[in-house]
């Protein structure tokens, strides 16, 4: 089953990597590294300071820079020129142009690997995971991803149903992904749930679950790949309906209880490949 779904040569459900070439200078204003995610990455890596860590699909380097501030040397791998151009320089971050399927680093070049919300952009998932294991054959591999099947269905699915349904096609089931990662690395994989706080600094698709008004902002939506690949007409209709429901109190009557929650289970997980013994 894994070979059929995600095996060598298999193509991910959608090829959306190139969409980041259309992002503008506002990307870093809504997609900042969140310290709680950084804390989780550091804890799961469990590497000493001065360790060399590859960040695969580094984007504009927000998490690369945050981990560098914790004492790591980061090798940031990113195919998009636009994203690399948005990166804020750091003396502990070295940038490389390349894809996850062909990481431009030597065998065993790193002590560990991270990948944050980038797996769904890869063209060949098995090859990408194998490449991560190649460059870190002994160290941990930590992946932050989403599985909407494990999520509590939130109001976003009501107003933007195509975004929600697209996520089921784009993101593989987390347990299937864990098995694929085990096959690619030859090591055990742990699945660690991550509940979303209400005040995340990294505003990915479900991050604004307690601030629905943010989804009315075009710039806010444009910095999320889920909205960039969604049907524009459906998004426009959803925005109009959300604006109307917020204005007349309909949203509050249906979903106001979410404003009382501090965090939510939205189907986000860390996967951790254990270091080799």
Overall description:
- The structure is a single chain.
- This protein has 277 residues and is an alpha/beta fold.
- It has a domain at 2-151 and 167-198 and 266-273: Vaccinia Virus protein VP39 (Rossmann fold, 3-Layer(aba) Sandwich), CATH 3.40.50.
- Helices cover 37% and strands 16% of the residues.
- It is built from 13 helices and seven strands.
- A seven-stranded mixed sheet has the order 3-2-1-4-5-7-6, sandwiched between helices.
- Helix 4 links the parallel strand 1 and strand 2 (73-77).
- Residues 1-17 have low confidence and may be disordered.
**Helix content percent band:** 25-40%
Strand order, sheet with most strands:
3-2-1-4-5-7-6
Largest sheet: 7 strands, mixed
Assign the CATH topology of the domain at 2-151 and 167-198 and 266-273.
Answer: Rossmann fold
């Amino acid at each position: 089953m894994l070979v059929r779904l995600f095996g060598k040569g298999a193509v991910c459900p959608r090829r959306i990597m190139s969409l980041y070439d259309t992002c503008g200078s506002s990307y870093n204003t809504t997609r900042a590294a969140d310290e709680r995610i950084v804390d989780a990455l550091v804890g799961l890596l469990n590497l000493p300071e001065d360790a060399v860590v590859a960040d695969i699909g580094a984007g504009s380097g927000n998490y690369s820079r945050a981990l560098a501030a914790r004492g790591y040397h980061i090798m940031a791998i990113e195919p998009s020129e636009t994203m690399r151009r948005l990166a804020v320089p750091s003396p502990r971050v070295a940038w490389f142009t390349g894809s996850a399927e062909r990481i431009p680093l030597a065998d065993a070049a790193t002590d560990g690997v991270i990948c944050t919300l980038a797996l769904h952009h890869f063209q060949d998932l098995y090859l990408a995971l194998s490449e991560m294991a190649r460059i870190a054959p002994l160290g941990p591999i930590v992946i932050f991803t989403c599985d909407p099947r494990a999520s509590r269905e939130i109001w976003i699915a009501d107003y933007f149903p195509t975004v929600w349904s697209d996520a089921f096609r784009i993101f593989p089931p987390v347990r299937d992904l864990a098995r694929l990662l085990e096959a690619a690395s030859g090591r055990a994989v742990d699945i660690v749930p991550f509940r979303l706080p209400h005040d995340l600094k990294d505003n990915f698709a479900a991050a604004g679950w307690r601030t629905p008004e943010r989804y009315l902002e075009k710039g806010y939506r444009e910095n999320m790949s889920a909205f960039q690949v969604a049907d524009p007409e459906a998004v426009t209709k959803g925005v109009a309906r959300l604006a109307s429901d917020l204005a007349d109190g309909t949203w509050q009557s249906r979903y106001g209880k979410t404003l009382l929650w501090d965090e939510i289970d939205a189907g986000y997980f860390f996967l951790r490949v254990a270091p080799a013994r």
